[in-house]
Please model this.
Amino acid sequence: MKLHILIAVSFLVIGAYLMGNLLPSDPVVTSDKVSTLPTDKITESKIPTSSAPSSSSPSQSPLIVKAQQESSSSSNSAINNSDLSSPSSSEISLPEIFKKTENAVVQITSTRPGSDQTVVLNGREIPQNNIALGSGFVYDQEGRIITNHHVASEVDEVDVKFVDGDTYTAKVIGKDPYSDIGVLQITDRAFFDKKVAPLTIANSSEIEVGEQIIAIGNPFGLSGTLTTGVVSQIGRLLPNDITGYSIANTIQTDAAINPGNSGGPLLNMEGKVVGMNTAIYSNTGVYSGVGFAVPSNMLLKEIPVLIEKGSYVHPWLGFTATDVSPDIAESLNLPRNFKGAAVVSVVENSPADKAGIRGQVVRENLVRNEEVRTGDIVTKIDNQLVKSMDDVISYLDESKKIGDKVSLTINREGKSMEVPVTLEERPSGSPRLLAASSSQPQDRGEEEKESDPNPPLFKFPEIPGFPELPKLFP
Model:
């Protein structure tokens, strides 16, 4: 009996010993839990003391450890790749863009002659020169600087100051007031020792609404200022009160642009120029979230000509027009949403006049009531749809030159017809004044008078109760 009990106890002791060696004393960390944490989090996390393995505890199975490592490695690799990925391999950070471009962005100071302004400071009268501050950027290795025409419009020389404080004299060698572009040439030989890398000019037709952009310039004389925003819209027609002709295809942005930013570059996220900051709309004279830039494609088209000839001539049709409203369309028995540019006035001896384009006429009938005869409605130019006069101006500036022929599709009294027009050089006078000075009889032999020949070339949508925003060139 004692022998049987001894044998049974021995089996129990041996069994307990074997079970203690086969079963681990601590919980196994499964691979799915490892995969949810980055490697640095795993190494930094602390395991509670009560569950920490002791030095005397048996090691985990090699197969289990290998499975955990493979799962952790695969998961961490995916996490790292995701963290390092970027929207575009060519995009760089804002600080990198600034460091890459700041040396090529300059402050321009021009002193206009004939100023007798004075200011009183601490009881003393101090004469003030008529000084204009603007911005610009290096165009090439020949010392040429690009800026706005209005920054250097009344002078022959300006001072160009770089971010390191060095200042050089530059001559104004090219001007285009219509597109507000100016070209300067640094004359100081010491500049060429700097070997400043010019900015790269990109294709502005590739930018999209919502794309992030950067403006660099000297607002209020604060040199080397960077602001950022997005492309709010493209293809805007910007009115220019100085010339009377609108600037075509401008870029609208909400990047902060203030007086002093004029002529500075508008950059994409690759650090390339997509535009030149030109104007803002504001009822306070400072940033209001609506800024405009001349597109880089216009710079690429005009700058070589400005360098060679000093000026740039624009093609011209010679008429003013307004949008076709639903009321005008219905009065002409056209669809309510009929679109086109309704010709208001035609400049005498202009290309449009020579081609027979008709403008609007107002005359009085027998009972002294005014009757309006609507002019031709331009619906296409070279088979490009025309929704407004903006489309006509933008197409001419972007695609045509003097001497080219264009085909205007017009609607005249309900009938569609094609009218060929040969483009001529744009005259220097305002189109409104030219139209006002023209006397183009439409119905000969009848007493008649033309309507107001000065329609607005461009107008923002009217919002009830919202003040009209004056334009300011910063």
Observations:
- The first strand starts at residue 105 and ends at 112.
- The longest helix spans residues 62-84.
- The two ends are 112 Å apart (CA to CA).
